[in-house]
Amino acid sequence: MNSIDYKRLSLLGDKVKANQATKAEKDEFMSMMYESGKITQLQYNDYLNKKNSDEIVNAALAIGAITLIGYLIGKLFDE
Predict the structure, then answer these.
(1) What whole-number percentage of the chain has pLDDT above 90?
(2) How many CA atoms lie within 13 A of 18 on its CB side?
(3) pLDDT digit string (tens) for 18-38?
(4) Is residue 6 within 8 Å of residue 74, measured between CB atoms?
(5) Nearest to 26 by CA among 3, 1, 57
(6) Closest-CA residue to 5 (of 36, 44, 38)
(7) How many Å apart are CA 79 and CA 77, to the nearest integer?
(8) What's the pLDDT at 3?
(9) Which element (helix H / strand E) includes 77?
(10) What integer pLDDT is reported at residue 2 of this predicted model?
(11) CB neighbours of residue 16 within 10 Å
(12) How far apart are CA 19 and CA 2, in angstroms?
């Protein structure tokens, strides 16, 4: 699992959620989610093969939001 660039994850998640992301940005968001272990290889492959991709992206957005909340709570307690 790679460490996550939380600022980039937040930016990309916002763009994907607002339907303003380019295909490359959406792919980067999904790649980040897969490489960090937030979605499974099957989910990532289904996204790449356009199988239930809207549902997978929506799930990844929710997981990304939870990941960011966890990060922010952790930062709050670190201080």
Answers:
(1) 89
(2) 10
(3) 999 999 999 999 999 999 999
(4) no
(5) 57
(6) 36
(7) 5
(8) 81
(9) helix 53-78
(10) 57
(11) 20
(12) 26
Amino acid at 73: I
* Mean pLDDT in residue range 39-57: 95
SS (H, E, C) 1-69: CCCCCHHHHHHHHHHHHCCCCCHHHHHHHHHHHHHCCCCCHHHHHHHHCCCCHHHHHHHHHHHHHHHHH
Residue whose pair of structure tokens reads 């990844």 in the numeric block: 60
In the structure encoding, which two tokens stand for residue 53, read together?
Answer: 């991709």
What tokens were used for 66?
A: 């939870």
Report yes or no: 25 and 16 within 8 Å, Cβ to Cβ. yes
